């Protein structure tokens, strides 16, 4: 109904998964999900959480500590979701909790400048060499949306290139052949995006430089920039092939277009200085989020001074936000970044994630389940396809039904993975060798149960 009457009664609760059952909910999670569906579309505030890709009822989380979470029914899980990336220190890290308490006692929002936001901006600029100046926003979506507006303002051009299967948040124009939940739910190009917006988004193939060059050959003079995840994380983890990022840098520089790295996931995750430092390719603009907010809503975009000075109030590109630079988000972000500055942090992340990936590779091989594990630093995905997995087409060859069975077998045994094949898993500094070894042993038994091997 458009512009019609108010709803006078709640819509019937849709049944979305087998575990909802025919009668009464059995668990507190099932009860909450039944209630949630009366008030929230699909019962969730972000689609992938609904478990539609894997079936069943989402577990509602009660609390987290370190590498573990507990659901509202008292079940404990080793967590590899990590709130989709921000919790590189694990849940409720004491330094973050302390910083939050202190910040909250001083007031939660002012809509006016605070000293702490300057500190976080300075930390970011010092960490990421390509960022001379940074603007804090509230989410990765806002960061990418704003960076694209800025690229357009700076170049005076309209078109943007994105890659099929990459996800940069849910702004109009970026929901074209998008990854993550859009791909998981079979709506890579969202309804409600006007054709006139979508037509400004050109879509190329990840890890295929020739597909980019072809677009530049036709539209070169009107391309404002390329936005790319330097490690794709929203179709599952797919690393950039050798020379791909360098090729994007070369093509954009030659055409006077901007190169935007969406480091919302990879920023401070694969290296303290970002994927751009790990792979030695310098973008013009960088989008950040997740880790820089330590688990609170935050995002940021930054880059070369001559581009950033176009942002209002210095320049004509407008972007604003009541909660931007929020003292709580900034405090949690700074506490997280300071912990990450400790010596050996990234070596530990690398080692722990390697132990997990190697162990899982062995388990899958012994079970003779066709699979391929992609890992970059502490982000990884196990694809249910023999691999290699270097392109979206290879990602899409994965057996998602098998993933669903494996996901539930792991969940039942106390390991929480992303409820979709097309997402990344995250290892944190809180994961111990014992957590990893238990996970590998659980995977062995989960595979047996899921595939009866
Ligand atoms: N788009 C997020 C994963 N890449 C999912 C966000 C959520 O459901 O919290």
Written overview of the protein:
- A hairpin with a 2-residue loop joins strand 1 and strand 2.
- With 453 residues, the protein is of the alpha/beta class.
- It has 2 domains: 189 residues, Aspartate Aminotransferase, domain 1; 247 residues, 3-Layer(aba) Sandwich (Aspartate Aminotransferase, domain 2), CATH 3.40.640.10.
- It has 15 helices and 16 strands.
- A 7-stranded mixed β-sheet has the order 4-12-11-10-7-5-6, with helices on both faces. Strands 1-2-3-15 form a 4-stranded mixed β-sheet.
- The structure holds (4S)-4,5-diaminopentanoic acid.
- The site of (4S)-4,5-diaminopentanoic acid has 8 residues, from helix 5.
Radius of gyration (CA) equals 22 Å
The hetero compounds bound to this protein are: (4S)-4,5-diaminopentanoic acid
Low-confidence stretches: 1-21
Count the strands?
A: 16
Number of continuous helical runs: 15
CATH topology of the largest domain: Aspartate Aminotransferase, domain 2
Which structural class matches the secondary elements? alpha/beta
Rounded mean pLDDT is 94
Content of β-strand:
5-15%
Summed up, the domain count is 2
Spatial order of the strands in the main sheet? 4-12-11-10-7-5-6
Query: How many angstroms separate the termini?
Result: 51 Å
Question: Helix share of residues?
Answer: 25-40%
CATH class assignment of the largest domain: Alpha Beta
CATH architecture of the largest domain: 3-Layer(aba) Sandwich
CATH superfamily of the largest domain: Type I PLP-dependent aspartate aminotransferase-like (Major domain)
Overall, the morphology is: globular
């Amino acid at each position: 109904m458009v512009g019609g009457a108010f709803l006078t009664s709640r819509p019937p609760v849709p049944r979305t998964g087998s575990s909802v059952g025919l009668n009464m909910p059995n668990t507190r999670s099932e009860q909450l999900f039944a209630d949630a569906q009366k008030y929230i579309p699909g019962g969730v505030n972000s689609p992938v959480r609904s478990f539609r890709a894997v079936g069943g009822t989402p577990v509602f989380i009660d609390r987290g500590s370190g590498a573990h979470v507990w659901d509202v029914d008292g079940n404990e899980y080793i967590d590899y979701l990590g709130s989709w990336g921000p919790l590189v220190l694990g849940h409720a890290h004491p330094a973050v909790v302390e910083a939050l308490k202190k910040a909250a006692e001083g007031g939660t929002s002012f809509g006016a400048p605070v000293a702490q936001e300057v500190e976080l901006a300075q930390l970011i600029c010092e960490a990421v060499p390509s960022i001379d100046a940074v603007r804090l926003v509230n989410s990765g979506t806002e960061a990418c949306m704003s960076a694209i507006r800025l690229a357009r303002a700076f170049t005076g051009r309209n078109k943007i290139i994105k890659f099929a299967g990459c996800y940069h948040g849910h702004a109009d124009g970026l929901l074209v052949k998008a990854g993550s939940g859009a791909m998981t739910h079979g709506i890579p190009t969202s309804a409600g995006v006007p054709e006139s917006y979508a037509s400004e988004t050109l879509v190329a193939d990840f890890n295929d430089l020739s597909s980019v060059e072809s677009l530049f050959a036709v539209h070169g003079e009107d391309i404002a920039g390329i936005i790319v995840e330097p490690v794709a994380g929203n179709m599952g983890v797919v690393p950039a092939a050798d020379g791909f990022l360098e090729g994007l840098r070369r093509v954009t520089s030659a055409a006077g277009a901007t190169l935007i790295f969406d480091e919302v996931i990879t920023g401070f995750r694969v290296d303290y200085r970002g994927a751009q430092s790990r792979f030695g390719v310098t973008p013009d603009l960088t989008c950040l989020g997740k880790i820089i907010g330590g688990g609170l809503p935050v995002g940021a975009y930054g880059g070369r001074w001559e581009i950033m000075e176009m942002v209002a109030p210095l320049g004509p590109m407008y972007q604003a936000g009541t909660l931007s630079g929020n003292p709580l988000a900034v405090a949690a972000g700074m506490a997280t970044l300071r912990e990450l500055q400790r010596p050996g942090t990234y070596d530990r992340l690398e080692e722990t994630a390697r132990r997990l990936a190697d162990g899982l590779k062995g388990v899958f091989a012994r079970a003779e389940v066709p699979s391929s594990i992609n890992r970059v630093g502490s982000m990884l995905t196990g694809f249910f396809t023999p691999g290699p997995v270097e392109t979206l087409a290879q990602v899409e060859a994965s057996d998602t039904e098998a993933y669903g069975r494996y996901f539930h077998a792991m969940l039942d045994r106390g390991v929480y993975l992303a409820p979709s094949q097309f997402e990344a898993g995250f290892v944190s500094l809180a994961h111990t060798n014992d957590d990893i070894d238990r996970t590998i042993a659980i995977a062995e038994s989960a595979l047996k149960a899921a595939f009866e091997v």
